[in-house]
Amino acid sequence: MYFFLSQLSIMDLLYSSNIFPKAATDFLSGKNTISFVNCGIQLFLFTTLAAAECLLLAVMAYDRYVAICHPLRYSALMRPRVCAFTVAGSWLASLLNSLVHTIYVLNLPYCASREIHHFLCEIPALLKVICGDTSSYEDGLFVSGVLVLLIPISVIMASYGQILSTVLRLGSKVGMRKALATCSSHMIVVSFFYGTAIVMYLVPKSYRTALQDEVASVFYTIVTPMLNPLIYSLRNKDVAAALRKVLGR
Question: I need a surface site. Which of 40, 60, 89, 227 has the fewest CB within 10 A?
Answer without folding.
Answer: 89
